[in-house]
Each structure stands twice: as C-alpha cells, then as structure tokens.
C-alpha cells in the first residue's frame, strides 16, 4: 500500500527530524504543563526550519496543542488547580478575539504584503512580551524575595469591588468579579493567539493581575482555554486538509510525557516559580523576536542592512527562541529535583526524631 | 508497603498502556503515507486526525502518567491544614458553696 505524498506539502521524515520534534515536543509540553502555555512558539518555526510549509506547520502544531492541553488540564484538575468556569468564560471571549486578530492580520497582509505582516507579528511579540513579561518577572522577583503567600493584585482587588451586573463567581479561583472585566482579558488572549500563536502570554498574567486568580489557578485554567481554542482551530485547519498527522503524533508523543511532568512540578515547587519561569521565557523570546525585526524592515525597504547580518540575526533569533524554552525546562526540572531532595531530607529528619 | 504496591500497579498499567500506545503509533507509522494522504483530504475527513489525537491522548497519556508514577515522580499532596480542636469552655455556673 504505497501512496506517494505531495512533496510540496509533506516532508520526508528522517531520524534527526523525528528526534528534534520529539525533544521540542517534550520540552514544550513540560513548560505548558507548568505555566499553562509555551512551546508552540518554537514548534512552528522549528517545523518550518525542517522544510514544512508554514500552514502545515501551524495546523500540525495546533492539532497537537489541544490534546496536550486536555491531558494537562485533567491532571491539574485532579490537583484542584483548574477553574473550569473561568477557563470556559475566557475561551468564549478569546474565540471572538481570534476572529478579530485574523481580520487585522488579513488587512495588514493586503496593505503591506507578507513582510509587513511579519513585521506586525514581530513588533506585537516584542511590545507585549517586554511589557507583560517585564511586569510578571518583576512581580516574581519581589514575591520570591518576600517568600510569603501570593497576594491578590491591587488592580484585581479594585475591580472585584465594582458591582457591575452580571457578577460571576469562580469557586476554585476564589474570585467574584463582573463578567465585563473577564471579556477584555479573554479577547486579548485570543487576539494574541491569532497574532503570535501563544495566547497564554496574555491570558495567564491577565487572570492573575486583572481577575485576581493565583498563578497556580491561572496557569492551570489557561490549559482549558488552550484546549477550547486549539480544538476550534484544528477543526478549521483539518477541514482544509492541512494537518500532517505524522508530525502531530511525534510531537504529541513527547509533549504528553512533558505536560504531565510539568503538572506534577506545580505541586512540588514554590508557587512564585510559575511567574518567574513565565516572565523569563517572555523576556528571552522578546529578544529573539527583536532580532527578526531588521530583516522585515529591510524587506519593506525601510532599512538598509547587509544581507549577511540579516542571515546571522535570523539564525540567532531561532537559537535564542530555543534557548528560552530550554531555560524554562532546566529551571523547572532543577527546582523539582531540589524540592524533592528537600522533602526527602525533611521526611528523613522527622523519621529519625520519631 | 502501600506505596510499593502503588508503584507496582503503576508499572503494570504502564506496560499495558505502553503496548497499546506502541500499537497505535506502530499502525500509523507503518501505513504513514496512505494515512497522511487520507487524513489530509479535508472536509469530513477532518474527523480522522481529530479522533486519532484523542485516542493517542488517552492511551499515550495514561502510559505517560503511569510512567512517572512508576518512577516515583508524583504530585506532593497538600498538607492538611491543622484545624484547631474545638474545646468546649466550661459554662460559668453559679455555685453555692454552702
């Protein structure tokens, strides 16, 4: 039963490409299980670097994302961290955000072409990641130093006091807030997902600083949003025949191992570490995307730059992006190892005292 | 002892789901070309890749979960908050020591 595949759409798989996709899948899954999102931003360019066409890369990535998010969400639900209602409410407004994001993308594509669209994506990446990532990172550093339990963000506290019909209660998150304040967060999550494919970089901080959920509940509930949005996106892409099931399954093989490990990690390490990992990854990815900006400016004839430098910056951008994910994974695994060791020592001491 | 049993159970389940997972992956990759071609026809054929990833997420997900349990990597149970024991204060009663 030998069927020749369309070589323009489907690549030939080699041992090295399978190993690359499996490893990136595992690391991406680990980070997603821990901070609720991530991994997708490396997988799409990673697949494209293997020769996979952009649309097939996006579709195959999305097709692995929703089952991974489902498995992670179930695992973290068992730990009592997922607020399903919050996730679904956010996902509903995120769906509208995605549609608006796609429309804006198409308008930019029609007005300024592919280079203009790429420039818009990269600038959005840099602006959002520097602003939000910087805030999350600073908060992680200060709360980490304090070592105290996570305090509800001042903005969230103020918003929770405004009685604006309809008020919604999110039991697991322990939050009562007007629906009107959840909509902008969900909408921005969807917009970002349509623009840079990682809505969680807005969704998780939004749930923490605007709605008032803890980092643990926000990152776990983000998996519900990722599942709902990923499933919707996959149905759309699969109906256009863009999913390469081979690539999806290889990534999924790695990411299902990683996502469960990441979920376990959230119960072992300090809660402020979620914010630290998220903030760090966002800032490193911002540097990576900033390096891609000159290339698009040159393509739009807005900047005169040596093509040799552009090529170096392009490669450096991809390497830094992979480094961001690896950094997150090393921090998570290192912290889990340390926490387990400390727990074992405490148990040993308790046993010897008894 | 109880933990050893759990680990043993996890190991058995890991092997079971591992075999099932290997069977699913083996089937897809043995017939990789025709399956990829059929799954990418679009339209109603979209149900096929979606159903496959749901199946893989169940089988391979269960394998992965049991693998970590068998390796002893498990979630830390939250410490139960110590509830202050309710002690009934003795009622103040007027007593007459006559």
Fold blueprint:
The complex is a heterodimer of chains A (354) and B (98).
Chain A: H1 15-35, H2 40-49, H3 54-78, H4 84-146, H5 154-160, E1 167-170, E2 175-178, H6 179-196, H7 200-211, H8 215-239, H9 245-268, H10 272-299, H11 307-353
Antiparallel strand pairs in A: 1-2
Chain B: H1 2-30, H2 32-39, H3 47-70
Helix pairs in contact in B: 1-3
Give me a quick take on this structure.
Chain A has 354 residues and is mainly α. Chain A is 79% helix and 2% strand. Chain A has eleven helices and two strands, in the order αααααββαααααα.
Low-confidence stretches of chain A: none
Low-confidence stretches of chain B: 80-84
The 3D shape of chain B can be described as elongated
Q: Helical proportion of chain A?
A: over 70%
Total DSSP helices of chain A: 11
Could you give a short account of the major beta sheet of chain B? none
Mass-distribution shape of chain A = globular
Structural class of chain B: mainly alpha
Number of helices of chain B: 3
Q: Provide the spatial order of strands within the biggest beta sheet of chain A.
A: 1-2
What is the residue-averaged pLDDT of chain B? 83
The fraction of residues assigned to DSSP E strands of chain A is under 5%
Oligomer: heterodimer
If you compute it from the alpha carbons, what radius of gyration of chain A comes out, rounded to the nearest whole angstrom? 21 Å
Amino- and carboxy-terminal Cα gap of chain B: 63 Å
The total count of strands of chain A amounts to 2
Work out the helicity level of chain B. Answer: 55-70%
Biggest interface, residues from each chain: A-B, 44 and 35 residues
Strand content of chain B: under 5%
Average pLDDT of chain A: 89
